[in-house]
Each structure stands twice: as C-alpha cells, then as structure tokens.
Amino acid sequence: MDHQITIDHAHTNKLLLLEDDWSLVDGLSYSLKKNGFDVDIARTLEEAKKFLLHGEYDLLLLDITLPDGSGFEICEYVRGHGNQVPIIFLTALDEEVNVIRGLDCGGDDYITKPFKLGELCSRIRALLRRAGMSKESEASRLCRGDITIDLLASRALLRGVPLELTGAEYKLLCLLVRNADRTVTREVIFNELWDGAGNFVDDNTLSVYIRRLREKIESDPSHPDHLLTVRGFGYQWKEVQI
C-alpha cells in the first residue's frame, strides 16, 4: 500500500520539487530554504515516486517536461491514491492546453517560467493556508455513512436532512458516531454525558434516550441498522449506508 501524504502544520512546511533543470534547481532550492521551507529535489518521475513513498509533503512543485515523462503523471499518481496535497505546476509552456490539462488532472495552481521567487512563495503560502483551512473544516464535521454531524453548529443531518434532537440526544449521537463500529459501554456513556453534570441516570433512562434516538434515525426502529445494542455491554454505531 502506498504511503499516504498528510498535511501537518506543526512542522516546517516540507516541499517536493520535481525539476530536471539544474540551473533552476540550485537557485530555487536555496531561495525556498531561505524562505523557511524544507525541500527535497527529484529530477525524474521515478525519483519523485520514491520520495512520495517514503516521505510526507505539504506541497508539490512539479515541472511539466521531464526526461521520463511529465509532471502530469505524478499529479495523476498522487490524486489516484486519494492524496489532496496541494500541487503547483512549473512550466515554460504557457499554452492554454497545458494549463487546462494541469488543472484537470488535479493541480491547484501553475506558474510560468521565468517567474519571480516572491510570486512563487506567495502562491505556495496561499495554497498551504487553503489546505490548512480545509483540514480544519474537515475536523469540524463527523461523517459516518448516512450521518453528518456539524460540530460547530451543533447539529446532525441524516442523508442531508437535519435531525430534531434534544441536547442529550445530540451528545449521545456524537459519542456513538465518534466511536463508529466500536462498542461504547453504558459506564462510558454515563460518565461522558451525564455524571459530569451531577445528574444520576440509570439504565432505564438511557434506554429511553436510545429508543428516542432510534425513532429519529432508523427506518425501522425495532430492527435498527445503525444504533445497535450489544447485550451485556452497551451500544454501537454501525457505519452502514441504507
């Protein structure tokens, strides 16, 4: 299985530069490092793939014309493996067909040689900011099968339709969905949802909440597909689509 590329803003932003023109590489690599970026350099498609298999990058800078192919191939390779790392194409070919192909295959931006380093760094930082905001947006939502929970708005949607939930029902749903396909014990539910507020809740009360939640979520509450009882232990949110 190929290594997944992730974006981690806790470290210096790491870039992969795929460029075979050494007259450009030396100066560009030096300038990027001087601007606070950590840079790995590949000269061919094969070298780039090896870097991608063994390293994690925050952004890719891809030349289009290479000795063993084109930067489009690396872009398609990365996107084909589900990686959404930002990609900027570096090209001396400013023909419209190349720009369109670069964007169509998953590129985020392009810059035509010769370019000013300040402009390139600005483009890089803009894409890194956008990627960071996208990650934060993803972290504010829980998506499990039919259910989407918007944590910022404190609301849940079933197949895109908002659910009318009480505060306790919403908290219970969040706890179960966060732990999808794992059994959440009654004790954990009591501790997480009610004990902290000083309210005593017994098994019967919890059963009532579970039943009410099923009535709002399940197609057939008597034969639930999502909110399952694990006898003797607790409850489990089953991640299925119906």
Automatic annotation (TrEMBL):
Name the SMART domains for this protein.
Answer: REC (SM00448), Trans_reg_C (SM00862)
Superkingdom of source: Bacteria
Q: Show where the OmpR/PhoB-type domain sits.
A: 139-239
Q: Which InterPro entries would you find in this protein's record?
A: CheY-like_superfamily, OmpR/PhoB-type_DNA-bd, Sig_transdc_resp-reg_C-effctor, Sig_transdc_resp-reg_receiver, WalR-like, WH-like_DNA-bd_sf
The protein's matches in SUPFAM superfamilies, at most eight in alphabetical order, are given as: C-terminal effector domain of the bipartite response regulators, CheY-like
Pull one GO CC term from this UniProt entry.
Answer: protein-DNA complex
Q: Which residues form the Response regulatory domain?
A: 14-128
Which Gene Ontology MF annotations are present? phosphorelay response regulator activity; transcription cis-regulatory region binding
In this UniProt entry, the residues modified to 4-aspartylphosphate are 63
Q: Which residues bind DNA?
A: 139-239
Q: Keywords for this entry?
A: DNA-binding, Phosphoprotein, Transcription, Transcription regulation
Q: Which Gene3D superfamilies match?
A: 3.40.50.2300, 6.10.250.690, Winged helix-like DNA-binding domain superfamily/Winged helix DNA-binding domain (1.10.10.10)
The biological processes this protein is annotated with in GO are:
regulation of DNA-templated transcription
Please describe what this protein does. May play the central regulatory role in sporulation. It may be an element of the effector pathway responsible for the activation of sporulation genes in response to nutritional stress. Spo0A may act in concert with spo0H (a sigma factor) to control the expression of some genes that are critical to the sporulation process.
Name of the protein: Stage 0 sporulation protein A homolog
Species of origin reads Hominibacterium faecale
From the broadest rank down, the organism's phylogenetic lineage runs: Bacteria, Bacillati, Bacillota, Clostridia, Peptostreptococcales
